[in-house]
Automatic annotation (TrEMBL):
This is Histidine kinase. Residues 1-168 form the DUF5931 domain. The chain crosses the membrane at residues 12-30, 36-55, 67-87, 118-136, 142-162. The keyword Coiled coil does not apply. SUPFAM superfamilies: ATPase domain of HSP90 chaperone/DNA topoisomerase II/histidine kinase. Residues 275-368 form the Histidine kinase/HSP90-like ATPase domain. It comes from Rugosimonospora africana. GO terms for biological process: phosphorelay signal transduction system. It comes from the Bacteria. It holds the Pfam family DUF5931. GO terms for molecular function: kinase activity.
Length: 381
């Protein structure tokens, strides 16, 4: 049973218990009522509505804000009927309303459906009706409003906590399934593709210059493939978190050396993907312009408020003004594929280069804030 289903079933159980309590209070104090028939009719409506909401809230398709609003309206009307049934003097003296604890049901429903803010709004609205019925802010009315607020806050907090635990459990299940699939694929790749690449790397040198190049490429692809099938990859969802190291490890090879922290570099999926794409563009520039013998180093630094990725090579380098000239002539590799991506993430790119001294591209991206807590997302542990 999902967390949602369990919470809505709990609301149904609360309704039944609260309705029985309301009936018991009405039987105990009916002799003071001005309209016993009306009181019985209100209790009948409460009983019918209890049965209807228990049935409706069992179906996820029916758990809409329209139903929650109707729940609030019916409860408010039943509460207002107290003003006709219970004499004014009794209300001022603190006599219980017809709904009693049953009035808390829509507050709890708002807490489960929309969180604490909606629960607080519903509690204050129903509390205001209770105070208005009594005409004065007696202790019983104020205490009832406080209890409604506490119920909404408590259930709203527990609902958010339970949904978070359910999401983490789902992620753990998906991770386990992904790990099993990766292991299955890794066995097949190891028995076939990796062995062929290893053979090409070993025998390529015997075929002359073209064979040497083929051997080098086979070695790079073998290293990249081994890194790929060895990752502890985790499934991601929209707005989910991923480890940046997982996206960068496939780029490691014989001429690309990757240095990352020991702990996970946790970032939102979109941010991590854009950073990885910028790094890939920087490495593409190394392969295209730095020279056939150039080696690149990728350094990842996970700082408190930002993540810094530096791509440095020992190639032929270039004059600093060539970056602006390339952008002006329509070659936008650095301007868009690197700087544009990082700038869209709120970061900055610093490029240091000179002829015969290689190129160093430093990309600094601020760690995104958690919208719920307004704090920076935590670093990996």
């Amino acid at each position: 049973m999902s967390v949602d289903n369990a919470l809505w079933r709990a609301i149904g159980m609360f309704r039944v218990a609260a309705f029985v309590y309301s009936v018991a209070l009405a039987i105990y104090g009916y002799h003071t009522y001005r309209g016993v028939v009306l009181a019985a009719a209100v209790l009948a409506v409460m009983g019918a509505w209890t049965a209807l909401t228990i049935w409706a809230y069992r179906s996820p398709a029916l758990r809409t804000w329209r139903l929650v609003a109707a729940d609030f309206a019916v409860t408010a009307l039943c509460l207002l009927a107290t003003g006709v049934v219970v004499p004014t003097a009794a209300r001022h003296a603190g006599a219980p309303t017809l709904t009693a604890a049953w009035v808390a049901a829509p507050v709890i429903a708002c807490a489960v459906k929309g969180g604490r803010r909606w629960a607080i709004a519903a509690a204050l609205a129903l509390g205001a009706i209770d105070v208005a019925l009594r005409g004065v802010a007696v202790q019983d009315a104020l205490s009832g409003t406080v209890m409604l607020l506490l119920a909404g806050l408590g259930v709203g907090y527990l609902s958010a906590l339970a949904h978070g635990a359910e999401r983490r459990m789902q992620q753990a299940v998906e991770l386990d399934a992904a790990t099993r699939e990766r292991e299955r694929l890794a066995r097949g790749i190891h028995d076939g593709v990796l062995q062929v690449l290893g053979l090409v790397q070993r025998r390529g040198a015997e075929l002359g210059d073209e064979g040497m190049e083929l051997s080098r490429l086979a070695g790079e692809q073998e290293a990249a493939l081994r890194s790929l099938v060895g990752l502890d990859t985790a499934p991601t969802t929209t707005g989910g978190l991923v480890d940046l190291r997982h996206l960068l490890r496939p780029m490691d090879g014989t001429r690309v050396h990757l240095v990352t922290p020991a702990a996970a570099v946790v970032l939102p999926a979109r941010v991590a993907t854009e950073i990885a794409a910028a790094v890939d563009s920087a490495l593409h520039n190394v392969r295209a312009h730095a020279g056939t013998d150039a080696t690149a180093w990728v350094l990842v630094e996970d700082e408190r408020d930002c993540v810094t990725v530096t791509v440095r090579d020992d190639g032929r380098g270039m004059a600093p003004e060539r970056i602006a000239e390339a952008a002006a002539t329509g070659r936008l590799g650095i301007a868009q594929s690197i700087s544009g991506r990082i700038r869209d993430l709120g970061g900055e790119v610093t490029i240091v280069t000179a002829p015969a001294r290689g190129v160093e591209v430093e990309m600094r991206v601020p760690r995104p804030r958690d919208r719920r807590s307004h704090s920076r997302l935590p670093r990996g542990r």
